[in-house]
Design goal:
The chain is about 35% helix and about 15% strand. The relative contact order is 0.14. The chain binds threonylcarbamoyladenylate and magnesium ion (MG).
């Protein structure tokens, strides 16, 4: 009996160590050489964990149908949900999508940067049909991240890259989170620290009659509107008319319940704070209650003590991940103002809280 215990403990330990080694094997510090190696992997139809300024992406050659299919398989992503194609300059974008006057203006203002434009797809683009899930439009962006741009250039092809996480779960903002979420499915992860923006890019649809934001992000509808000199509204699928397949899905979800607009805590809940948590209490349900600030360190995270929405955005996914522990009854989230980048934060939180 004792022997069995020892053996299974050892097995557990070995399993843990080999898992850790596996992660380490696929994570490479970013250097010109590791970028070149990653570019070769892309050319050979493999998958690369690519850092960007928003979140890590799971990148493959957008021309290569088999490689793109691997992305869908690795993420467990429904095939109806199209991918964003990443380019390193406007000339490359123009080989795959049609850029009208508005697209050019927005490119001038916001590219490279966290703005994805949905544009008419060029029929002769040669891209895999899977990339845009059979739609006549294509989502494209030029990221403002040196490693991503160097990789796209070195690979010599546009890169299809959704966020590097299992479909429906939290997006990843560090190389370790990519390894944890996708494991062996990714051939190499280029490690380049934590992502600055922390939320996925803003998606704007320029293929219809009027520009509309389909997914809020770090760049707000107001900023886009100012750049275009015309009103731009949000169209987040709330009216029931879905413009972007991603709007259909429960997204960004931790494994435990998420409760929004919390003004106090239930016993056993972890706290995701915003601003001061000095007056946040834990309800007394027979165990005495108390103050949230006195909870163990592992149960409390603060998106931004100084109520800075950009800081909050950059911390959102990593902090939700840190609190997503089975021993917590759930995550209680304090209210976040719904202005500026707060629109994007609240969009992600609302989806995370959907059951
Ligand atoms: O910041 C980002 O955008 C990250 C990094 C890696 O660039 N990528 C990312 O990709 O968030 P993904 O696949 O997780 O989200 C793409 C979103 C989905 O909601 C999808 O439905 C939408 O863009 N989308 C893609 N192509 C579209 C199209 N042709 N029309 C409408 N929506 C589209
Ligand atoms: Mg995603």
């Amino acid at each position: 009996m004792l022997l069995v215990c020892v053996t299974s403990k050892k097995k557990g330990l070995l399993f843990g160590v080999s898992r850790a080694l596996l992660f380490l094997m696929s994570i490479k510090v970013t250097t010109l050489q590791s970028i070149q190696e990653a570019a070769e992997i892309i050319k050979n139809g493999g998958l690369v964990g690519m850092p960007t300024e928003t979140v890590y992406g799971l990148a493959a050659d957008a021309y290569n149908g088999k490689a793109v299919a691997k992305i869908f398989e690795a993420k467990g992503r429904p095939a109806f949900n199209p991918l964003i194609v990443h380019c390193h300059n406007i000339e490359q974008v123009e080989t795959i999508a049609q850029m009208g006057k508005e697209a050019r203006s927005l490119a001038e203002y916001f590219w490279p940067g966290p703005l994805t434009m949905v544009l008419p797809r060029r029929e002769e683009s040669g891209l895999s049909d899977l990339v845009s899930a059979g739609l006549p439009t294509l989502a494209v962006r030029i990221p403002s991240h040196k490693t991503a741009l160097t990789l796209i250039k070195a690979a010599g092809v546009p890169l299809a890259a959704p966020s590097a996480n299992k479909s429906g779960s939290l997006s990843t903002t560090t190389p370790a989170h990519v390894a944890e979420s996708l494991g062996r499915a990714v051939d190499v992860i280029l490690a380049d620290g934590a992502c600055k923006v922390g939320l996925e890019s803003t998606v704007i649809d320029l293929s219809g009659d009027a520009p509309a934001v389909l997914r809020p992000g770090g760049i707000t509808a107001e900023e886009i509107s100012a750049a275009l000199g015309q009103p731009v509204s949000y169209d987040l699928g709330e009216s029931g008319e879905i413009k972007s397949p991603g709007q259909l899905l429960k997204h960004y979800a931790p494994g435990i319940p998420v409760r929004l607009h919390a003004v106090d805590l239930e016993e056993g809940e972890a706290l995701l704070g915003f601003g001061s948590i000095k007056f946040m209490g834990v309800k007394d349900t027979g165990r005495g209650g108390g103050a949230a600030k006195d909870l163990p360190e592992g149960m409390v995270r603060n998106l931004s003590e100084s109520s800075d929405l950009y800081e909050a955005a950059s911390n959102l996914f990593a902090m939700m991940r840190a609190l997503d522990k089975p021993e917590h009854k759930g995550i209680a989230v304090m209210a976040i103002p719904g202005e500026g980048v707060g629109v994007a934060i609240n969009d992600r939180l609302k989806r995370a809280a959907q059951s």
